[in-house]
Amino acid sequence: MHPDDQSRVDEFADFWAPDPPAATWRETLADAASALSPSRRRRAGRARVIAVTLSLGAALVALPQTPALALPMEPESMESLRERAETLGEEYNGELRDMEGVIQEAERATERAEETAEEAQASKEQVRTLAYASYTGNGIDPSMSLFVDADPDQVIDRAVVIDFLASSNQDKIAELEQALERDEEAQEAAQETLEEAEADLEALEERREEVQAMIADHPNQPMGGQYNITPRTEQMRELVIEEFGEGTEVGGVGCYRAVGGWVVGEHPKGRACDFMVDGNGSMPSQEQVDRGWAIAEWARENADRLGIMYVIYRQQIWDVRRGDTGWRAMADRGSITENHFDHVHISMF
């Protein structure tokens, strides 16, 4: 499959689903206004205009006498929203990179503290061994013999040697304990920095998700851009790639194409993308299957926020308009690709 090929007509088959019929308040007002336009009055005749006017007047009289409500404010322009989303995305990715550095520093501090603690524990064990040897009179432990075997004639008294070694190890233990205290302080500081970074990242993610929801809800969704798809679809495409990678080694991502499949689907409308898990038209490996399920479940979890209408994968479909129902089996269309075994299909409103 050639990713995002706008001219290629291929064999991918979509599950067709009609658009929701609900009209917006703007469309309702436009319909009412057109009924009272001069051209309509001339065609319908004076009697019909009077009937329409009376019925509208009766409806207005029947409404509760409440203060006039202001019309909804125009939504922020799509261009402005997309600029905000891009800025937040760059900031978010920058925070992620910074957080990776914080995590690495916290891991290094932990490793240093663990190594110092192990070294201090080893020195303590040596001191205990020396103390036992001095108390029992059983001689120096073989592990300590290297300190005296070089020139035994210089050893005046075994106890003197043991006391010397014990004293040296005690000094080493004191140094190690000081180092351990410093390492633990560094570890605590790194953990505090990590928690602060996590909090900043969560706050940024919330702001980013708010803008993403505004883009998904925006009434202006024209086809266009680099991939000839709607802004809502392009946003979904970018987020899936950000989360799971583009998968260029297994076929990549394809969105717009002129023909939708067996019946007209969302691809020609710029409202659907296929995320490949195998680019050869063959049954994918288990690792690829798992990646596909991860994409499909992510789409389900984010459907309401991003404006996802339905998801198809491995001859099954999930449709947000069916409420709480889960995956439903689909009819066999005859091939791995047409049954969506080698790609995840996501359609948008």
Q: How would you concisely characterize the structure shown here?
A:
The chain has helices spanning 25-35, 38-44, 46-62, 78-136, 158-217, 231-244, 286-301, 303-306, and strands spanning 253-254, 272-276, 308-313, 316-319, 328-329, 343-348.
Description:
By secondary structure, the protein is of the alpha+beta class. It folds into three domains: 25-62; 79-217, Helix Hairpins (Orthogonal Bundle), CATH 1.10.287.620; 231-348, no CATH class. The protein is built from eight helices and six strands; from the N terminus they run ααααααββααββββ. It has helices at residues 25-35, 38-44, 46-62, 78-136, 158-217, 231-244, 286-301, 303-306; strands spanning 253-254, 272-276, 308-313, 316-319, 328-329, 343-348. A six-stranded antiparallel sheet has the order 1-2-6-3-4-5. Helix 4 (78-136) runs antiparallel to helix 5 (158-217) and helix 5 runs antiparallel to helix 6. The longest helix is centred in the middle third of the chain and has 60 residues, at 158-217. The chain is elongated. The two termini are 24 Å apart. It comes from Nocardiopsis changdeensis. This is ARB-07466-like C-terminal domain-containing protein. Keywords: Coiled coil, Membrane, Transmembrane, Transmembrane helix.
